[in-house]
Structures are given as C-alpha cells and as structure tokens.
Design a protein that fits this description.
The protein is α/β, with parallel strands linked by helices. Helix content is 39%, strand content 15%. The protein has two domains: 142 residues, Aspartate Aminotransferase, domain 1; 242 residues, 3-Layer(aba) Sandwich (Aspartate Aminotransferase, domain 2), CATH 3.40.640.10. β3, α5 and β4 form a beta-alpha-beta unit. Bound molecules: pyridoxal-5'-phosphate. The site of pyridoxal-5'-phosphate has 13 residues, from α4.
Length: 393
C-alpha cells in the first residue's frame, strides 16, 4: 500500500490555532482585560424561527410511520431544489432543478467537485485565498498557479491571456478580502474560460451580503452556464454553519470533450453521497419561504450594520481597506509598515481586539488584516471605540 504522499506537500495550517494560543497566553497574563474577538468567520445569530419551525415539524414527521423518510434522493429533495431554483429565478436566472445539487455545505463540495476533473488540469487561484481551494488540489497532486490580488487591482485579479489554466477559482464577495466582482469583470473571466476551454469554480458563499450592483451569481453573465460551476451555502445566508446545507449548480450546457459535467457530477453524487438529512433540507427550504426570507434579511441587516461600523471606523482613522460593503469582511492595510502578526500583537496588547492576520491567507496577505462583522453589536461598537482611540492620528 502506498499512501497519498501528496498530503505531505500540504502546508501546516497554524493560523487559527496560533491565534487561539496567543490570545489565551495574553489572557492568562492579564485576566482583568476584556478581549474582543473580531476575527471569527462563524455566524453568531441563531437560526430563524421559520427554520426552527420547519425542522421541528420535520422531526415530528420522522417519528410517525406514515410520514417517516428513509434515504432521500442523493441530489436533494425536489422541494428544496425547487425553492433554490425560485431563489435564482427571482433574480432573473433560469435554472433547471436538475442542475441544482443539494450538499452538506460549500466546503465539502469544493473538495468533492474535483472528482470530476482529471488530475492533469492546471489550477488557478487568487492569492490571498480561502485555503480550501489550494489544499484540496494539493491533495490531488494538481499544479497550482497563483494570481496576484493586491490594493492595485482592488483585490480582484483579472484574466491574464499569457497564463493557461484549466480550473479557475473565483470567490465573490471574497473571503478574506471582502472584494466583489462586477458583472463586467466576471464577463472577462467567462470570455477567458471559454477561450481556454477552462471551467470556473465560482464560490458564492457570501452572495447574500451583496446590496449594490456587484454580481451575486456568475450566471448573471451570459454564456457562464457553458463554463462555470457555482457553489453556494446556507451557512452565511441563514446561519447554517452548524446545521450544514449548501448547493452546487452544474449547468447542462457545461460540456467538455463531449462529456456533460452535470452527468459526471450526478454519477459522482449518486455513488459517493447519500444526501443531506430530510430535517435539515426542510429547514433550508424554509429559508426561502416568505416568512423565512424576512427573518433572514433581519439577521443579515444586523451583520451589515456591524460591517458598516467597522468600515466607517477605518475611514475615520484613515486606513485603506476593501470589503465592509457587500461583505462581512473588512480587509485592511496594517498601519505604519507593520506586518500582519505585528499588527495582531499590537491590537491584542494595546486594546485587546483580536482579528486575523492576512498572511495566513497567502503571501499577498502579508501586511493586511481581516476583521469580521459576525460579532455582536455591543462587541463591534466597543472594538471600534478602542480602534479609533489607538489608531486615530
Ligand atoms: N467558501 C468560502 C469562501 C467560505 O469562507 C466558507 C466558510 O467560511 C465556505 C465556503 C464554507 O461554507 P460551508 O459552511 O457551506 O461549508
């Protein structure tokens, strides 16, 4: 037996464990100080009442012989696929329900979808990057090229015709930078993908935060169905990080070498996946009910207010950033030439505010720092007060 030695090529991920270690070391030395965490990427508001109600009634169904459900369809129950279809249709995007596959979250599908691609494809990812895109391809032994995201391009790298890639990862609104592509910018990526016979893996996990005219789905661009797979999630939209549900769209029009990628993905899912629990799918469908949408929008408005507060704070202290708008992330330039970890330590020691060092997301993240809007209002207000006191010149 030979193990998959590609795993030995993975870079250890110390980021969040190192943050936790540094924070607990500081707290042990200064137990009287209140530490405020603005580094988390997890949601904090509970599930919406409509979701809870739907899940409770699904639990009751599971307890009765007449309504009990065993294995469901691997690609998701029709009721959920149709409600996701409706979610897109309300934005003018027509999808067939058979193009929608329900998953247990976007992270799993980011990895799983690679099953339908040959190992010898060249992968293009942005730097800084959501590390899952890199690690899943390292595990498979694929060659990875990086495209530079920086302040100069607004952290939105555009296609370079001299680079030949087969699988392109785009995440918009972006984790960690909060930057979001416009439809015109995405059109350039669709054109590039078509010219190069490439496939775009479009991660729309944060689309629900969009409030301006930036894109929410790659399928807003004409022709994208011929070159893009979209991954999305109920995690940030509806607080499902612990409940687990998402979806992946593989359009019928996506054909390479005469092979339908939708059919490959269907075969992959029916072979390796037995679907998401009925109770969770019922809860997910309630997200897109009239009542559910209203409740979810209230939660999103709460996070958006936090994001705006942090963005306004950065404006006030004169620090450059991306995100804050259309995104729960604020990606800021560390002041006074500090590197990411120096700034982390500075904020921890001086004002006890914890964020995420940008260098943990790739070499271009060095010198940057990520704050998030997922905390409580109270924490965010107090953190902004402290940040202003420390950073205002
Ligand atoms: N994609 C991005 C860009 C993310 O930041 C995250 C989670 O933080 C995910 C996907 C994972 O989503 P899920 O909870 O659906 O697995």
């Amino acid at each position: 037996m030979k193990p998959n030695l590609n795993y030995l090529n993975l870079q250890e991920s110390y980021l969040f464990s190192l943050i936790a270690k540094k924070v607990s070391a500081y707290q042990a030395e200064h137990p009287e100080k209140s530490v405020l965490r603005l580094g988390i990427g997890d949601v904090t508001l509970p599930l919406a009442p409509a979701v809870i109600e739907a899940m409770q009634s699904a639990v009751a169904e599971m307890g009765k012989k007449e309504t009990f459900k065993g294995y469901g369809p691997e690609q998701g129950y029709a009721f959920l696929r149709e409600s996701i279809q409706g979610y897109y249709a309300r934005r003018g995007i027509e999808l067939d329900a058979t193009e929608i596959f329900v998953s247990d979250g976007a992270k799993s599908d980011c990895g799983n979808v690679l099953d339908i691609f040959d190992k010898d494809n060249v992968v293009l990812v942005p730097d800084p990057v959501y590390p899952v895109y890199v690690d899943t391809n390292v595990m498979a032994g694929r060659k990875i090229l990086y495209m530079n995201a920086s302040m100069d391009n607004g952290f939105l790298p555009m296609p370079d015709d001299s680079v030949k890639a087969d699988i392109i990862y785009l995440c918009s609104p972006n984790n960690p930078t909060g930057a979001a592509y416009t439809k015109t910018q995405l059109k350039a990526w669709v054109d590039y993908a078509k010219e190069n016979d490439a496939v775009i893996l479009y991660d729309a996990a944060y689309e629900c935060f969009v409030t301006t005219d930036v894109a929410r789905s790659i399928y807003e661009v004409e022709g994208a169905k011929e070159c893009a797979i979209e991954l999305c999630s109920f995690s940030k939209t509806a607080g499902f990080t612990g409940t687990r549900c998402g979806w992946t769209i593989v359009p019928d029009a996506l054909i390479r070498e005469g092979v339908s990628l939708r059919k490959l993905w269907l075969r992959r899912q029916t072979t390796k996946f037995n679907g998401v629990s009925y109770v969770v799918q019922k809860g997910a469908a309630a997200v897109f009910s009239e009542e559910g949408e209203k409740q979810i929008q209230a939660n999103l408005a709460y996070y958006r207010e936090n994001a705006k507060m942090i963005a306004d704070c950065m404006d006030e202290v004169g620090i450059a950033y991306t995100g804050g708008k259309n995104s729960p992330y604020i990606w800021l330039k560390c002041p006074d030439g500090m590197d990411s970890w120096q700034f982390f330590q500075y904020l921890l020691e001086e004002i006890q505010v914890v964020g995420t060092p940008g260098s943990g997301f790739g070499k271009n993240g060095e010198g940057y720092f990520r704050l998030t809007a997922f905390g409580s209002h109270e924490t965010t207000v107090e953190a902004c007060r402290r940040l202003k006191g420390l950073l205002k010149k």
